[in-house]
Amino acid sequence: MPEPLLLTGAPRQSRSQLRLAMRRFVRHRAAMAGTVVLVLVFGASLIGPHFTPYGFAELTEDYSQPPSAEHWMGTDAIGHDLLSQVLRASQKSIQIALVVAALSTFIGVLIGTVAGYYRGWVDTLLSRMTDLVLVVPVLAVLLAAANSISQRGGNWFLVAILIALFLWPTVALVVRSTVLSLREQDFVQAQVAIGASDVRIIVKHLIPNAVGPIAVSATLLVVTAILLESSLAFLGFGIAPPDTSLGKLVAVGQTASSSRPWLFYFPGVVLLVICLCVNFVGDGLRDAFDTRRSGGRA
Amino acid sequence: MMGPGITRTTDGLRVRDLTVTFRADGRDVPAVRGLDLDVRPGKVLALVGESGSGKSASVLGMLGLLPPGTRTTGTAMVNGVDLLSLSSAKLRRRLGKDVAIVFQDPMTSLNPVHTVGQQVAEALLVHDQGLSSRQARARAGELLARVGIPAAVRRLDDYPHQFSGGMRQRVMIAIALANSPSVLVADEPTTALDVTVQAQILELLTDLCREQQTGLVLVTHDLGVVAGVADDVAVMYAGRIVERGTVDELFYRNSHPYTQGLLAAVPRIDLADYEPEPIPGTSRSAAGVDVGCSFAPRCSWAAETCLTDDPPLQDLRPGHGVACLRAETVAAAQERKSR
Hints:
Chain A: Its main location: membrane. Chain A: The chain crosses the membrane at residues 30-51, 94-118, 130-150, 156-175, 214-240, 262-282. The structure holds two protein chains of two kinds. By secondary structure, chain A is mainly α. Helices cover 69% and strands 0% of the residues of chain A. Chain A has one domain (63-289): MetI-like (MetI-like fold), CATH 1.10.3720. Chain A has eleven helices and no strands. Chain B has a domain at 253-339. In chain B, a hairpin with a 2-residue loop joins strand 9 and strand 10 (240-246). Chain B is globular, with a radius of gyration of 21 Å. The chains are: A mainly alpha, B alpha/beta. At the A-B interface, helix 7 and helix 8 of A face helix 2, helix 3 and helix 5 of B.
């Protein structure tokens, strides 16, 4: 839809790039659907436990029940209500994913902008560091470290920080290349020419212009983080019982997938839905910020 | 912001023996070789030359805006401080305050994600931490009004893409003049604009500079522009000034064959049957000049000595310097021709 012409005197509204991107995002159907589902799942995982009759760690008298009016998602062999567990697990998984995304985006943006802005030996140093972290076999290191976390009570926050320490390189690479091209733009030199400091240029001019790529890679990190945490939990590390996560439920349920399929499929489908939705949101963000793709600035 | 009529003690810009050397493929490539410039407060100095003559390199070098790895030597005095002797952090504090620059392309010189008002206000806030954002915004409005943006206050919240090229260049001028610098460098400020807007922007630029006693260095290759607005002119060729003087001296008593060639190459509509005459050969940059006059290979006046001796920039008359071994002969011929 073409924009109305901005005639003098006509009522008009200043449009920031962010606002334009929002408009494009809202028009992106898959992304909006993804957002709605994600909000619902996260909302349910936060509010739901207050309404379910059973606690996630509560052992009921019903063992290995298939889904029923009493237990919507059934129960496991020792009487856990699966619905309560899935809600709790989604909450933990999403929390971990959000912390990971925030933290590794922060580290990645910091390292990426500094490397891209200063170039030279700073860039070489930071880039090699990034490469180094990138080639570390994440799962192996995480397993080793997660083991000791499990022994310390399986704090989900520690798990998140640990994952974040290995996921920032992808953000750093994206941000660095974006900043490398941004810093050559005239407006950056114009800022130097009015006497703006490096910090000011980076914070007020480079990062806001890189918001698109940053948002997209942060979103994709969410998926990576959820899957990584699930892998850890699947292998038996990370969050310690009685607390739970989606990966853990899938791991436990997998052994029973033929005899009591609900134990595997309910948490598995929730995991899948979350990851799919986050990917849709990532797609939507990418399209929303990519002006070339949608042809001009509408 | 300095109001009209307020004069202030400033001695403009004084550049001595400026050299700029780029480093390319492990070799030193000179771009500017020993440049002297004087910009008087409230006056317009036009720095003229072809592409590659070193005019942009000179002004960017003075302000420390060239990429790292470029070597700049000499002195550039503004308000008693030599810009070239400052550390980059100290220089940054002078930029925008004592000396400012307007770039060629206003379409890309503004950050697309911030409003125009924010960007003008920022120029003020960078140099005055005591200023509140309300005050900065109010002054940004005044500045935009001063550079002739209609409904300035209403447009503070607009983004750069809502401005035309000419209007954006006005914004750039407002930003550059926000802190009333002693010297303003305008690097081909109208090249990227519509012809119809060029004259307005130049007039605005020179009017504002005269009004607040800012010395203006106007980098251009357009001699029509020079004739219209400049007080002084310096003609550059291959990284050096070959002739300098007041506009009248340069246009009517020019004594360097290159200046004459430039003027003869300007198309004119005020004379019937006027054929612009190109200068033979191609322009050269400062790189690759070893001995002799850099213009000698293209010069119809060149003698034996021109190929071996370096012509110094000497005053032919007070305030009119020429770097040509045969300047007096050329000047005499010019006198005869114009008579």
